[in-house]
Amino acid sequence: MDQCVSHVTGIIMIVVCLLVVLYSEHEYAVREHRHLREKALLLEEKQLVVSMYHEVQKAVCVVINMEQVLPLSKQMFSNISYFCTNLQR
Question: CA-to-CA distance for 37 and 63, rounded, in angstroms?
Answer without folding.
Answer: 39
